[in-house]
User: What shape does this take?
Amino acid sequence: MEILVKKSRKQQIEEKATKLFREKGYAATSMRDLAQVLGIEAASLYSHIKSKEEILQKICFRMADQFFAAWKEVEKEQGSFSAKMEKAAIAHVKVITKDTDASAVFFHEWRHLSEPHLSEFLMMREDYEGRFKTIIRNGIENGEFEKVDEKFMMLTILSSLNWTYNWYKPTGSLRPEEIGKQLANLILNGLKK
Amino acid sequence: MEILVKKSRKQQIEEKATKLFREKGYAATSMRDLAQVLGIEAASLYSHIKSKEEILQKICFRMADQFFAAWKEVEKEQGSFSAKMEKAAIAHVKVITKDTDASAVFFHEWRHLSEPHLSEFLMMREDYEGRFKTIIRNGIENGEFEKVDEKFMMLTILSSLNWTYNWYKPTGSLRPEEIGKQLANLILNGLKK
DNA sequence: CCTACCGATCGGTAGG
DNA sequence: CCTACCGATCGGTAGG
Assistant: This one.
């Protein structure tokens, strides 16, 4: 049973903008494009929002907040570093699959943020990536993981997790939790029998 | 010893454009930006190129050609499917690391291609992805690989290989061949000891 | 949420 | 490779 909540005009604007930013890119999306999708004039958008970039900021920082919020689940895991990595993969994939449009914008369009937002964004990303690196480092020191370059490994793991925004379909057979588990399994155990 | 070859103006334009397209995105890069970097007027660019999109087309299809050319090395491999996958990873990473700017544009800006180039591009990508899927499928049928969804696995593998454009530095300690080997090793055997 | 409009900038052309 | 310029479009504002 689906509950229909009436969306505010502002919410509608942000949703449609997210979709357009994903499809055409932030720079190539005009406020007139956005207005047309909503059936209003471009000038009318400014009754609800301050600027085009404000929309981008909302999308990027809301996604960032969700990644950090999801990490709380990871911190509860007290088992092995493999178990921690699996929890991190699941948490990460869950956030992405909840809104693949916003995720696409988050991953690709952040560079159009102006200062000081750009610097803030990059600092948050560094913080988040550091958490994955810490799991890898601790797992290596512990003897649980192979000796690999932790930055190299972190980037490789995150790239495969991040890529889910590109092919995940809510109508598909794999649930987000299952996708996270399978990706963690690949990362930890590999494709070979 | 480095051999300095005099670059044609057209080559210079394409190189600078590649860098700008990567940094700012295709849509956000103006012909005036590009002209300024070259120290000429925007109108002068059109003595050497037909249009802004022509530059994007050159970048995207040149990269595609290189990925296909590199695949010839993969076809020579007559060993196991693991060996084939390693060869594919090395070939793929070699192409990316040869020009990370062009790779970034190839991965992110292709959607700004107009028809019929866009359709042609997507067909080539599908062909290329199919080759990875075939290795995976054959490896599973052969009993060499775990039973996984081949599309899911192909996308995951390619995402981790593709991501190298983002962090590879020619001055770093890892050579492209070594990066390909390590990524293949992770894909095949995982992080766990 | 609209009409009317702003200055700035866009990709590109004409003609030399 | 330049000057001079085109029509189109941009993000955004004033005033209702």
